[in-house]
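Standup notes, structure subgroup. Blocker cleared on the 1-deoxynojirimycin input:
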Amino acid sequence: MTGKVQWWKNAVVYQVYLRSFQDSNGDGIGDLKGIEERLPYLQELGVDVIWISPMFQSPMDDNGYDISDYYKVDPVFGTNEDMYRLIAEAGKRGIRIILDLVVNHCSDEHEWFRRACENENSIEAGYFYFKRTADGGEPNNWRSNFGGSVWSRLEDGRWYYHTFSPKQPDLNWENPMLRKEIYKMVNWWLDKGIAGFRIDAITFIKKDLSFAPVETEDGKRYPVENFENYPGIGNFLTELKQETFDRHDCFTVAEAPGVEQEDFCKYAGEDGFFSMIFDFSWESMEGEKDKSSPEAVERLKKKLFESQKFVSGRGWCGVFLENHDQARCLNRYLEKKDRNYYSASALATLYFFLHGTPYIYQGQEIGMENSVWKSVDELADTRAKITWEEKLRQGEDSGKLLKYFNDWGRDNARTPMQWSDEENAGFTKGTPWLKVQDNYREVNVKKQQEEQNSLLTYYKELIRIRKEEALADIMCKGEFSPLLEEEQGVIAYKRDYEGKKLIVLVNMQSRKAALEPGLCRRVLGEAFGKEPLFGNYIGVEIEGGKVMLQPYQALVAAAGIEAIHIGGSA
Ligand code: NOJ
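Run returned:
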């Protein structure tokens, strides 16, 4: 890929789920001062950007993804002054802040929606999708992303449209006055010194305005073709970019479900609507019986390689293992028996050198895992609650449902950050808003800071290497090519740029992998036989004339690059 090297291509982003990161005032909820207290930790870790989940005023139906005032910090998280100070203090440590931009919808408690409800003829009534029907019934049969209908009824008989919960009415982007309001707000925050935005659910902003009822094959009536990346959305996104992002030196990463290959460049190419979009193509292992089996690893490898081969040279993605909407990666990619330092560091190595910007989600760097949820009452997620009610009504077994939320529920990623073995894992002196994972005495930051060979130490080293000056070109412009594709259970790839090579080799299974030395020599070239740059084991074993990779052994090797200090963990 040619073209300019933007700073964010060599950045490492850390996602803070504010509510669960650090509580500074004992109310059991994380806050901005809490992040400020932890800046030294983040600086030491080596990250360049912090993405903070929504901290705006909100009734918190969806933990802040339902905003009632875009200009105000919610009191539970602090004040606007706290936010401005955080931006400044982070800046002093070389860390930039990006905010979550949630403009597909707002809260039903936003004054726009209040006015719209009060007066059908108000300006604000045009900011939402309202419908009346002749028979008073729902305008169509579309289902929402959280389950249930996309329509909710007002007392006066109007229906309003919501992609997510009924407390998140969709904003009507067809309305130019609304768009202007959004641009004003975006520029206002950029002028406050933030570096950019993570943009929420952006591909839902354009709908098929016929709102025609649908019958979908799966019977779910979630017609993505009518409301995800719907034709015409490009006009809105071009305007958004011109009116806001282009006027600042800013960085944007979009959550863009529904963008298929043919539209990828429009979104995340050199002059795309955004700096990058998240790559969700290889996150799911749902349905795998044994996630650590060679067959499952092969399926993961196929998805990963397809995506990388496509994106490399065309545009840019955010690559990640975790975020606040998913179960923890150790639970998603590994069977319980296989979860340990080696497998966790193997996963980390696997994605860190891909074509894209790596994101780390809070707690991932210490190997936090899913909680055990004993009852639905312990769950806080609005989506889980809506789904729970709906599925029970449909006759689903509650035990099965609870098992589903234990395995895949969003609350798994949202449990408080495990800082230490003190009460509540050092997250709060009060009662945490969501229960702390039971294993915090074994898995916490303090413990891993004290151990020499912890996952935390490994992440620090990975981050350092990913940002090495000597690798900058390869990481930004290096071509991605798969290696050893035929080797079951092994995932390997190469990044190449002007004679420099970086090779990542990961045995993604709980048994050893035996590789032919001839093959290794051919594939690794000059890097073969050299000390790996970095890895989770010391050296590589040769047994019976074969190169033996240990269970979950991961290594990074280089050729044509001299200036990197050879680290190495274990
Ligand atoms: C995507 C966010 O990541 C998720 O947490 C939220 O519930 C929905 N968008 C709605 O804003």
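Discussed briefly. The radius of gyration is 24 Å.
Next: hand off to the docking folks.
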